[in-house]
Design brief:
Layout: H1 3-16, H2 28-45, H3 50-63, H4 70-79, H5 84-98, H6 100-116, H7 134-145, H8 155-174, H9 181-195, H10 199-211, H11 216-225, H12 227-230, H13 232-248
Amino acid sequence: MTDRIERSKLKLRTLFGGTDRVFAETDPDFAKLRDRFVFGDIQDKVNLPDAVKALVSLAVLATIGERETIAAHARAALRTGASPESIKETIYHIAPWIGFPKAQAALREVNGALSLAGFPLPLPDAGRVTEETRMEAGEEILRHLGLAAEPSDSPAVTILNEAALKGFACGDIASRGVLSLPLRGLIWFVVGAALGADADTTDELVEMNLRLGNREEELRAVLVLAVPYIGVLRAREVMRYIDTREEEAPED
């Protein structure tokens, strides 16, 4: 038995308590290829803390609307040492970007997993703003992230920038506690990749992560981690953008 097979079995036992039985009976060859790739290559080799890998994987699964495995990945995150609060906040923090239907569907599965694990719900509130301070907090976070809600004569664009971006995404959500800013940056970056963000948006996400102290190699790592869920082509597209961006960087 090769090292890769052993690594995949060990990682599956560590994260899920055993082998993944999905398709094991109807498509055993497919199931073996999947498990050896996802857990023997990707999950085992990507150089990030296990809890970070678990939360990033959870975020990507919620983004693509994969409900069947959300609960299993929430339990896996607990096994890596991720706190119940960090698991919930991962879903909260991507809600502005993936929309409420996907976020709520993921939360139902996460809540079920946490309840079965013995954690009483609701968890303590991690909110840090009031109705009176949320917009000011959102403005400060936008500046810190290097983003801008440009003024516009269009009422619709104003609602998008003020209510959705500054007020909700930044003031209400990004101001919350539990998750570190660098971890949030990695999650937002990989969610953008999963959603098919264009070059301009990807550039904003990369710049934002660099401001938060993340390195480009960490962005590559979370992108590789997402390959089993978003596919090789999309990951290569974003990876190529990062590499091209490096080549075009001005010399000092």
